[in-house]
Amino acid sequence: MAAVQGAAFPAEAGDAERGARPRWSLLWLIVTANAAVLALALVALASTPFTVDWPKSAREAVVLGAAIAATVVSQTLLTRRILGPLGALGRSMRGVDPLHPGQRLEIETRSVEVATLLAAFNAMLDRLEEERRESARRTQAAQDAERRWLSLELHDQIGQDLTALRLRIDIASRVEGEAQAQALEIASVTAQECLERVRGLVHRLRPAALEELGLISALVALCDRVGESSGLEIDRRFASGVPKLTSDAQLGLFRVAQESLPNVVRHAQASRAALDLRPFEGGVRLSVVDDGVGISGHGDGDAGSGVRGMRERALLLGAELRVRSRAPRGTEVLLDVPASEVLVEGAEPTLPVGPAIPAIPGGPVIADPGAL
Ligand SMILES: Nc1ncnc2c1ncn2[C@@H]1O[C@H](COP(=O)(O)OP(=O)(O)OP(=O)(O)O)[C@@H](O)[C@H]1O
Ligand SMILES: [Mg+2]
């Protein structure tokens, strides 16, 4: 889109940020080039022995000048007409509002190039809208599952604890002396249990190890758990100088590792895997590799939603995710978290702790490293 605008029309403010600001419209480039060729031809004819009959009178010179002017003007008008649909295309593209899906461009044109651009742009809108719908649907499904789980926990656990607490307090208010002290003591224990459950709930909503121990320790704990439960040998390598990341980036990175390692166990038939974290281009690179059977394509084509969830995580962070086979065997998952996600000294983590964090669609909605 930007290329079409940039090539054919004067750029608008903001376009310059995306590339070199164009100085000429296509129309004027064509007209100027034609005029220059014409002028050169005239100069050549006038200054070389191979000359046509040069006007011998002022009248002939005027006629010749008028003919040249008429040629240039008619050529300009024709070229403007030919390039007109490109202008309309650019204006229509700018007019497309992503918040109003279903808009498609329709332009009358006989030009193959403009028709191709038009079809490509409309097809791109189709793909974007489809992907957006799909992504919204998955996010909604993940949120619904998360809410269902949360409401069950609140109702079955916390709700019962609070009911028991109220009963104890009722009893305590009706009795005196030793009996009252006993009832209050039981109430206090019940309140303590309830508090523990709430803490547990909070920790399950966000990986506890990540909260308490930091990213590297959480990754170590994850590798240990996956290794112990599956028998897979997992090398862990943490290079020195890994910068501290924002809270979102740490969580996103942890979730990618949390999805990749079980994938190795389930799909790779690998004997070994390695998780590596290192500084990379001002940010951080996470890689999870195995020596298994490799992956067809990029993993997106298959039924699962783990890889898709990882891609969405990466997108949220502006990070790059690559899932691919590696030579001579095995699969490699690479996540490059950009420098913009490195935590500036003294800055607050950017996400609150708790359920506002979007869950990986299709993955473990409320993921708990302990559950692996
Ligand atoms: N390490 C790996 N080695 C070989 N194949 C893999 C590996 N990781 C993923 N795949 C392939 O990519 C597909 C997609 O993985 P993805 O995590 O998206 O889905 P899944 O694991 O099948 O299901 P889900 O994660 O939703 O429970 C898998 O079905 C598997 O075929
Ligand atoms: Mg998976």
Annotate the secondary structure layout:
Blueprint: H1 2-8, H2 15-18, H3 26-47, H4 58-95, H5 112-174, H6 177-205, H7 208-213, H8 215-230, E1 233-238, H9 247-268, E2 272-280, E3 283-290, H10 306-317, E4 320-325, E5 331-337
Parallel strand pairs: 1-2
Antiparallel strand pairs: 2-3, 3-5, 4-5
Helix pairs in contact: 3-4, 5-6, 8-9, 9-10
This protein binds adenosine-5'-triphosphate (ATP) and magnesium ion (MG).
Can you describe what's shown?
The chain is of the alpha+beta class. It has three domains: 2-95, no CATH class; 140-205; 211-371, Heat Shock Protein 90. The protein has ten helices and five strands, in the order H-H-H-H-H-H-H-H-E-H-E-E-H-E-E. The chain has helices at 2-8, 15-18, 26-47, 58-95, 112-174, 177-205, 208-213, 215-230, 247-268, 306-317, and strands at residues 233-238, 272-280, 283-290, 320-325, 331-337. Strands 1-2-3-5-4 form a five-stranded mixed sheet, covered by helices on one side. Strand 4 (320-325) and strand 5 form a beta hairpin. Helix 5 (112-174) runs antiparallel to helix 6 (177-205), helix 8 packs parallel to helix 9 and helix 9 packs antiparallel against helix 10. The longest helix has 63 residues, at 112-174.
Which class of the largest domain in CATH terms? Alpha Beta
Rg measurement, Å:
34 Å
Strand order of the largest sheet: 1-2-3-5-4
Low-confidence stretches: 1-20, 348-372
Ligand types: adenosine-5'-triphosphate, magnesium ion
Q: Count of DSSP helices?
A: 10
Beta fraction: 5-15%
Element order: H for helix, E for strand = HHHHHHHHEHEEHEE
Number of domains: 3
CATH architecture of the largest domain: 2-Layer Sandwich
- How far do the termini sit from each other? 46 Å
